[in-house]
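Hi support team,

I submitted a single chain yesterday and got back a structure, but I'm not sure I'm reading the token output correctly. Could someone confirm the output below corresponds to the sequence I sent? I've pasted both exactly as they appear in my results page.

Thanks,
R.
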Amino acid sequence: MKKYFAEHPTLSQVLFFIMVIICLVGWISPPIALLSGFLFAELIGHPFLQLNSKATAQLLKICVVCLGFGIDLTTAIQAGKDGFLFTIATILITIALGLFFGKLLKVNRQTTHLISSGTAICGGSAIAAVAPVINASDRDISVSLGIVFMLNSVGLLLFPILGHAFHLTQHEFGLWSAIAIHDTSSVVGAATTFGEEALQTATVVKLARALWIIPLAVVTAFVFRSKGKSVKIPWFILWFVLAIVINSYVTQISEITPHVVAAARKGLVLTLFLIGAGLSIKRIKEVGWKPLLLGIILWFVISTVSLIVIKNFM
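Hi R., thanks for writing in. Yes, this is the structure output for that exact sequence:
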């Protein structure tokens, strides 16, 4: 089938745009969008694969900023306070465990640090920020991103089910998903599936967590003795904060903001479709079992520990 569409690229492009419209109209849920993207890439082939990564990153940032127009500043501050100390603790624990298990499994230093950073903070964004600081090779980056994206996909599908099974409240699930799921896109997708309050909590906590990319990159540069390496600052988070402030104090736009937020949610469904379309069985096979096992161990530990703490101490 894939060969047929390769010989008829116009048809694959038409089908791709049909799927884009389906996502934007809101006919499919975030988990289904992710699976649809993966199946589309495997059965038909991504007609714009070279543009996928950049388009996904930009669309995610725009949608996240727009979600800020649906959050009240007081709610955001409270969510940030609830997750602050917990965020620091989980980041430090994840990085430490990553170094330990990386040595135990004999995974190379660069790959270990990338997987640990992606698990500890915010998946692909953290990997992209840290990779140039440690002079990571293309293979190190590809393997780390592959693992993060695979576990993201599992988390997006599995976490809402587990959240209901463990009888988590909206606030508890939002906090848990922000800490235990790697990428912002999957965090928002899982939280959207769970509920409105969960989405607000998850978005605020996850983006507050993403700010730790900066100190992590600085410390990484010192540990790896990388001089003159630039650090990518996630500026879109500041725009997200500005959107929250505008939503809280500029009452004149109250009639517009619900439509902006609704459009952002549909855009996130499209983002997840594009993320799924960027995955492939070939890419999964190239990961290797040791780095994958490292990623699974770290993810399992951080998911379990954070769930126990949230249920019993918060």
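A quick pointer for reading it: The chain has a mean pLDDT of 87. Let us know if anything else looks off.

Best,
Support desk
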